[in-house]
Predict the 3D structure of the following.
Amino acid sequence: MTAQYCVGIDLGTTNSVLAYTSLEGDKPQVEVVGIPQLVAAGTVDSRTMLPSFLYLPHAQEAAGGAFDLPWASQRDIVVGELARRQAAEVPDRTVGAAKSWLAHSRVDRRQPILPWNAPADVPKVSPVTASQRYLEHLVAAWEAAFPETPLAEQIVVLTVPAS
C-alpha cells in the first residue's frame, strides 16, 4: 500500500506532538492530531499536546478501569495530562523528563531508574521504556483517528530534540 500521509512525531522532554500532512495535492497543509488522554481518572479528553509524563499508579488505583483509554482497557500506567498532574501530588510515582535521561552520560538508559530517587517499593522503568510508552500512546492516537491508514504504512518523521 502507498503512504497517504507524512506523519511527524515530536518526542519532547515536556510535551509530545503528533501532526500530519497529506501526500496528495499541490499545497499540503499540516494538521495537528488531537490526542485522547486521561485528564482525570475515568475522564478522557483530546488535547493537541501529550505531556511527556508517565504515572505508575498503585494497583488499587488502576482497578475498575479508572485508567482505560478508547483503545486499551485495564491499564496500569497513565501517560499524558493526568500523569503530569500527578507529578505534583505523587512525585515518587511519576516520571518526567525521561527523554533527558536518554543521553545522560552517567546512567544506563535501559536500566529501570525512573522515577529518580523513588522509594524501593515503587516500580521503576528505564528512560527508554518511558519514552516508548509516550510513543505507543501517540501511535494508538493515530490509529484511533485514522483506522484506515495505519501508521506503519505512512511516512513517519520522528524528532527527538537534543536536551
